[in-house]
Amino acid sequence: MIPVKIGASSLRQSTYEQDRNKTLIRIELDLLEERRKQSQLRVASYQQHIARYYNSKVSRRGFE
């Protein structure tokens, strides 16, 4: 089958700006590190909370 080329472009193609897109990608990459740090802090907080809950339910026993 031979592909047919259509002369009309889509809205996405007509509004695409390469320089603006590169700038926005750079900004997102800069913010990615900050979001990664926030998620690491959230995971650490969650793990501490779970550990406190687990340790409160465990009864301690000593050796005789």
What is the topological layout?
Layout: H1 11-15, H2 18-57
Structure, briefly:
70% of the residues lie in helices and 0% in strands.
Q: Keywords, please?
A:
64 residues; mainly alpha; 70% helix
Q: Please, could you describe this protein's structure?
A:
The protein has 64 residues and is an all-alpha fold. The chain has one domain. 70% of the residues lie in helices and 0% in strands. The chain is built from two helices and no strands. It has helices at residues 11-15, 18-57. The longest helix has 40 residues, at 18-57. It is elongated, with a radius of gyration of 27 Å. The relative contact order is 0.06.
- Largest sheet descriptor: none
Q: What order do the helices and strands follow?
A: HH
Q: What percent of residues adopt helix (DSSP H or I)?
A: over 70%
Q: What is the overall number of helices?
A: 2
| Poorly predicted runs of 5 or more residues | none
Task: Using the CA coordinates, give the radius of gyration.
Answer: 27 Å
Q: Mean of residue pLDDT?
A: 88
Q: Tell me, what's the shape?
A: elongated
Number of domains in the coordinates?
Answer: 1
The number of strands is: 0
As a percent range, the share of strand residues is under 5%
Quote the distance from N terminus to C terminus.
84 Å
Broad structural category: mainly alpha
